[in-house]
Amino acid sequence: MVSTVKDPVLAVMSLSGGNDGLNTIIPYNNPKYRDYRPSLGIAAEQIIPINDQLGLHPALAPLKKHWDEGHLAIILGVGYPNGSLSHFRSMDIWATCEPNELGLTGWLGSVIQDVDPKGENVLTGVNFGRGLPRSMAKEGVAVASVGDLSTYGLLTDMGAESQRADALDLFGRMYAPAIGQGAVDDYIRRTGIEALQGADILSTAPGMYRSEVEYASTAMGGYLRDMAQVHNADFGTRVMFTTAPYNIFDTHANQSVGHANLLQDVAVNVDAFMTDIRQLGKSDNLTLFFYSEFGRRAMDNGSGTDHGTGGVAFAIGDHVKGGIYGEYPSLEEGKLEDGGNLQHNVDFRSPYTTLLDRWMGLDAKEIVGGNYEALNFI
Question: Are residues 164 and 268 in the same domain?
Answer without folding.
Answer: no
